[in-house]
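I'm curious: can you give me some protein's one-letter sequence along with its backbone structure tokens because I've never seen that pairing?
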Amino acid sequence: LVLILIGVIAFIVLATSRFKLHPFLTLILAAFIAAFAYGLPSSTIAKTITSGFGGILGYIGLVIVLGTIIGTILEKSGAAITMANCVIKLLGKRFPTLTMSLIGYIVSIPVFCDSGFVILNSLKQSMANRMKVSSVSMSVALATGLYATHTFVPPTPGPIAAAGNLGLESNLGLVILVGIFVAAVAALAGMLWANRFANIEPDGEGADELKTQNEDYEALKQSYGALPSPFKAFAPIFVPILLICFGSIAGFPSAPLGKETLYDALVFLGQPVNALLIGLFLSLLL
């Protein structure tokens, strides 16, 4: 059984990386391969796959849609740039890789990590030039910071789907709280690895273009016009996260917040769909 699982995972990796097959199609094919390999009756395979797909969308579909809309608004409005500037003001220029990693850690909670890297790439190069640090080191710090929260902290779709598969869809607050700490460890490991490249300069194709990206960051900021305030930038993601966490705390068997009106309000507002809907309304202020 384990060998079959390893084989299916190897197929997914090879199909997406080597043969460039779209991940959605790859996963569908992997599901069929696994079904045949594990000996499921051929007449029930398609029904099992479609019911599983529909079941997952049933409890995470709206959450993914709302989270994606919020992330897109934060990306297009320049809120991600405001978040990055806040971290730079907080940490200053003393710890360049830590600053870059923390920027990625925060921005990737609402914004998809690949989009976040594109948005912050010119900022990364600008900081590397100003702080006299290798852009290789800063790239590693940014990428690992982005991926840490992207893979561990809802409302990013991946962690939500994983929570649903583990039966934790009604305890996303717990998933967020644990994910924040686990992601911090992963980001710290990435930052320490990035420090190994502090004195290594990029080479190969495109290396010369990096030297001109300092000016690109200033042009990027100006393209957004007036950047949103820190409150408007952070509210659409941190308010829903706090609501989900308080909703989970209110639902503990020990009832730490009682069973009265406050309990009912927090349980209602703490449901992921409701919390993210509030976040969506806050993002419209942008």
User: Anything to note?
Assistant: The radius of gyration is 21 Å.
